[in-house]
């Protein structure tokens, strides 16, 4: 009793300012959330000093709610469309409009410094509003976004005097005019990071050169494909302090002076740690980057259509490599070399060079991945496209790499079995989840039955995101996952025979997850309605381009289903092919 | 046979061994798990009649063992049921039967019938739509069962994931026809693999980059339709855009028919934003009136930024230069045709 009284006294005597100061060392959203749950006063103190907000689903909460709780936000991250939108499974016009957020924040957060968006739609007007509303605006990151043009970028360039970062990674930008870059005033020198790799057309190169050379803190520069190679040397000379460089097209008429210039320029880049770009590579120009290879920790060659021998020569020089993204031209031989040379490798992504071809065009098999899993003790993140796999290989990989946290395997042909035994790959993936106890993200492929889901439900206790396609036999599969995976946040499923039963039996689980996507499955309209009615804190959205689902029988399966938890009720900006299943309260009015 | 489903209250009396043997794969421990299934009946499901057994029949054991993947067909809806007739069947297929005027004629013609057919599509390698049918003699293609058009077997026997009347978005295959139950047509595999939407899971940016690379690269055997070529399609008055993959088509006719499917709901006022009255079905007569009064044309923006009428140039040339599509009223498109002709002449 006395102890409790002492503790209570302590908390009353602790001034707010001190607590605030302590909290300022804690940045992670999760930890901040925990702090706010300790007691009411901590909740209050914490909310006034929270500077960074992460909203994983822009429809889970309204801008007004965020503003009300956290009045002094400086950085906001918002995500819009479901992940499967990346693969054209979400029709155009679905949503993810950032405009309401920008408008609200323009009024409420005049000190806002950072906006980071993923899979959202942002217009030029919005960009203009950002440019003119936030005097200290510093960071704009637009990943896989769309809806804007280079005119919007011009406004940002012209108005954001303190801009440090402009990153347009993989966004769809309507490229009207390359002169938007010239809108950065001559007095502007604070650029640190620029990623324009998604732009289709040439930017005004002289303007770019001047910009880069007058910004002494330039750290990251990612050019677009249209940027000519013969101008790269000059650019690099103006910014030898660059740490991350994305080249443009890495090809030009073979001219000795271009090559020597380039090699010399790279030699001058003593801080360079990351390279990307490399579209249209002319192999004879590759040696120009050799001077920086030994220091490289990150190398993205996933657009470089160069063959295995050239790849091996290049990658073989990069002993410090931690991250490699590459096309399957690297082949098993290249991966063997990687395993032997790059002992610090943490992340490997192998993309398909010919994903729609009928047969393998390269000698890349499961063996390459097995080699890397053996040779690289720190490897924990894998994305691997291939055409064949065995349970034995998966088993070996699992045992080699129990530290695996992200494992995404895409066997190109759906439902491909173990090519040696012709069995399903259930036991292979089972081994992965059993041995890799910290697995956070998993994508499945190949021939899979309900059994694999049983394994996942049993072992994958830390799993947060699961992607499933063309797998399973029955609702039991889905049930295993929903009932077993305690930490599941995002589940996306396509073309699986999962219907109503598992969903309805595990309905409450859906409120503990960020979202569930199911397309080309067997969930009936009736079940959707039921879920929508009974679970008011979920938005159950039916996407069906055939027309209103109530014109068809309740038992008719819906085309696509997107369920997400929300505290802001049904959204109001849906296109004509999306219906939100209303909750019961709607009928009471 | 259906696998046993989860809810203990439904399977109450079934003993574990039945459950185990019914599963396609022998799940040795399954019986334990089944018995130990926690009842998570949050919604009082056993009372709920709307919850139907809507799961797809599982693969039988033999089939699994033979890996006769061709025979395993995932279908939506109750086992044994055909997909229901839908109002979209009101739209006639405008391919072999040209007596119905297409909604979006690709060229404004006097007699109002899509004159595109095989004449203007001159590229030697591309076959007109009707020609492709001859390659697949087993195909029972009829104009009325549009169902057939949308399905295509993939030579390796993997599942057609586009199920019957799935709208255009889902259809990615070239027009190899199949009958509704997905019996594969062997032997005449198209050069490029029939594509499934969003599979393999590669982002558009990467797909488009690959496409450009293979065009630039001499060594790569330029398979037609090797990579996707998405362009935006807008329509005057429609609330939102669509995207089409031009590589899915080999003729203007296919493109036209898909566009028609996609945008028909706009022209008929079916898909509006919510709150509108668009929930009634249109009467057939109203629809026919509309079709015959067809006033829309399809135009495209080419690499030079000019707007041209779709259909003037050979298909290959078209997909090379087309940046985006726009469906506009015929009256707005006057004056485009002559320009297109001149341009293609000056190019060749």
Q: What are the SSEs and their pairings?
A:
The complex is a heterodimer of chains A (589) and B (348).
Chain A: H1 2-13, H2 16-23, H3 29-36, H4 40-49, E1 52-55, H5 63-69, E2 75-79, H6 99-108, E3 114-118, H7 124-133, E4 139-143, E5 146-149, H8 150-159, E6 165-167, E7 172-174, E8 193-195, H9 205-214, E9 220-222, H10 232-238, E10 244-246, H11 256-267, E11 274-276, H12 290-293, E12 298-301, H13 308-315, E13 323-327, H14 331-341, E14 347-351, H15 366-375, E15 381-386, H16 391-400, E16 406-411, H17 426-435, E17 441-443, H18 450-459, E18 465-469, H19 475-484, E19 490-494, H20 500-505, H21 507-510, E20 515-519, H22 525-534, E21 538-543, E22 560-565, E23 578-580, H23 584-587
Parallel strand pairs in A: 1-2, 2-3, 3-4, 4-6, 5-7, 6-8, 8-9, 9-10, 10-11, 11-12, 12-13, 13-14, 14-15, 15-16, 16-17, 17-18, 18-19, 19-20
Antiparallel strand pairs in A: 20-22, 21-22, 21-23
Helix pairs in contact in A: 2-4, 6-7, 7-8, 9-10, 10-11, 13-14, 14-15, 15-16, 16-17, 17-18, 18-19
Chain B: H1 8-11, H2 16-22, H3 30-35, H4 61-66, H5 129-135, H6 146-150, H7 204-216, E1 230-235, E2 242-245, H8 252-267, H9 284-292, E3 296-301, E4 307-309, H10 315-321, E5 324-329, H11 336-347
Parallel strand pairs in B: 1-5
Antiparallel strand pairs in B: 1-2, 3-4, 3-5
GO cellular component, one term (chain A): nucleus
Domain F-box (chain A): 14-55
GO molecular function (chain A): auxin binding; auxin receptor activity; inositol hexakisphosphate binding
């Amino acid at each position: 009793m006395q102890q409790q009284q002492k503790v209570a006294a302590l908390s009353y005597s602790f001034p707010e300012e001190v607590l605030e100061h302590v909290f300022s060392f804690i940045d992670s959203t999760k930890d901040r959330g925990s702090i706010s749950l300790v007691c009411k006063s901590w909740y209050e103190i914490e909310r006034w000093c929270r500077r960074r907000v992460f909203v994983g689903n822009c429809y889970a909460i309204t801008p007004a709610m965020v503003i009300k709780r956290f009045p002094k936000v400086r950085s906001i991250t918002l995500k819009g469309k479901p992940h499967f939108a990346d693969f054209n499974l979400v029709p155009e016009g679905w949503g993810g409009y950032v405009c309401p957020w920008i408008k609200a924040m323009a009024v409420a957060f005049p000190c806002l410094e950072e906006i980071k968006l993923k899979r959202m739609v942002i217009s030029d007007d919005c960009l203009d509003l950002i440019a003119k509303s936030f005097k200290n605006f510093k960071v704009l990151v637009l990943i896989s976004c769309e809806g804007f043009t280079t005119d919007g970028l011009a406004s940002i360039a012209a108005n954001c005097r303190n801009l440090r970062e402009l990153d347009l990674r993989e966004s769809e930008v309507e490229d009207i005019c390359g002169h938007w870059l010239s809108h950065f005033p001559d007095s502007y020198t604070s650029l640190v990071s620029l990623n324009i790799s998604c732009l289709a057309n040439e930017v005004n190169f002289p303007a770019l050169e001047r910009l880069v050379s007058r910004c002494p803190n330039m750290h990251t520069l990612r050019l677009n494909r249209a940027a000519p190679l013969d101008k790269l040397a000059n650019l690099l000379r103006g910014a030898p302090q660059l740490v991350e460089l994305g080249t443009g097209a890495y090809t030009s008429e073979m001219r000795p002076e271009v090559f020597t210039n380039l090699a010399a320029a790279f030699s001058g880049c003593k801080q360079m740690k990351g390279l990307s770009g490399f579209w249209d590579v002319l192999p004879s120009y590759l040696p120009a980057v050799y001077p920086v290879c030994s220091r490289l920790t990150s190398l993205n060659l996933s657009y470089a259509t160069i063959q295995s021998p050239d790849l091996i020569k290049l990658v073989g020089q990069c002993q410090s490599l931690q991250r490699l993204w590459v096309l399957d031209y690297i082949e098993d031989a290249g991966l063997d070399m990687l395993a032997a040379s790059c002992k610090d490798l943490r992340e490997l992504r192998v993309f398909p060079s010919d994903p729609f071809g009928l047969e393998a065009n390269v000698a890349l098999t499961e063996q390459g991945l097995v080699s890397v899993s053996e040779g690289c003790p720190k490897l924990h993140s894998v994305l691997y496209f291939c055409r064949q796999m065995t349970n034995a290989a998966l088993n070996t990989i699992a045992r080699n790499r129990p530290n695996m946290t992200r494992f995404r395997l895409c066997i190109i042909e759906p439902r491909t079995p173990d090519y040696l035994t012709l069995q399903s790959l259930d036991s292979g993936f089972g081994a992965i989840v059993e041995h890799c106890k910290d697995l956070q993200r998993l994508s499945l492929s190949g021939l899979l039955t309900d059994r694999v889901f049983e394994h996942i439900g049993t072992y994958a206790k830390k799993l947060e995101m699961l992607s499933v396609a063309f797998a399973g036999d029955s609702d039991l599969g889905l049930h295993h996952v929903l009932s077993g995976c305690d930490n599941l946040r995002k589940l996306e499923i396509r073309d699986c025979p999962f219907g109503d039963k598992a969903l309805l039996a595990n309905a409450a689980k859906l409120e503990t997850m960020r979202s569930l996507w199911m397309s080309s499955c067997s969930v009936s309209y009736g079940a959707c309605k039921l879920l929508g009615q009974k679970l008011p804190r979920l938005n159950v959205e039916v996407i069906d381009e055939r027309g209103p689902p109530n014109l068809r029988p309740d038992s008719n399966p819906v085309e696509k289903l997107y369920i997400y938890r929300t505290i802001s009720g049904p959204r109001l900006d849906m296109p004509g092919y999306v219906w939100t299943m209303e909750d019961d309260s709607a009928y009471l009015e | 046979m259906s696998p046993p489903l989860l809810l203990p209250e439904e399977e109450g009396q079934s003993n574990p061994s039945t459950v185990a043997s019914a599963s396609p794969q022998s799940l040795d421990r399954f019986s334990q798990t089944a018995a130990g299934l926690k009842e998570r009946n949050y919604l009082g499901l056993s009372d709920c009649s709307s919850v139907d057994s809507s799961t797809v029949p599982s693969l039988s054991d033999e089939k699994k063992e033979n890996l006769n993947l061709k025979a395993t067909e995932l279908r939506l809806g109750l086992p044994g049921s055909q997909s229901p007739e839908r109002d979209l069947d009101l739209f006639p297929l405008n391919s072999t039967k040209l007596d119905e005027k297409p909604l979006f004629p690709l060229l404004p013609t006097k007699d109002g019938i899509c004159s595109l057919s095989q004449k203007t599509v001159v590229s030697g390698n591309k076959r007109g739509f009707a020609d492709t049918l001859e390659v697949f003699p087993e195909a029972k293609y009829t104009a009325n069962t549009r169902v057939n058009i949308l399905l295509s077997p993939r030579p390796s026997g993997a599942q057609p994931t586009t199920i019957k009347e799935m709208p255009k978005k889902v259809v990615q295959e070239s027009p190899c026809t199949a009958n509704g139950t997905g019996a594969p047509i062997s032997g005449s595999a198209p050069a490029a693999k029939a594509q499934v939407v969003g599979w393999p899971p590669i982002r558009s940016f990467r797909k488009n980059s690959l496409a450009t690379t293979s065009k630039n690269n001499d060594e790569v055997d330029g398979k037609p339709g090797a990579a996707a070529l998405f362009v935006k399609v807008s329509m005057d008055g429609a609330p939102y855009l669509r995207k089409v993959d031009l590589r899915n088509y080999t003729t203007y006719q296919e493109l036209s028919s898909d566009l028609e499917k996609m945008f028909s709901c706009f022209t008929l006022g079916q898909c509006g934003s919510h709150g509108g009255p668009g929930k009634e079905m249109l009467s057939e007569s109203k629809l026919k009136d509309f079709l015959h009064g067809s006033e829309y044309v399809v135009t495209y923006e080419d690499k030079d930024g000019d707007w041209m009428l779709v259909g003037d140039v050979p298909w290959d040339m078209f997909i090379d230069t087309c940046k985006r599509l726009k469906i506009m009223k015929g009256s707005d498109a006057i004056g485009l045709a002559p320009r297109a002709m001149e341009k293609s002449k000056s190019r060749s």
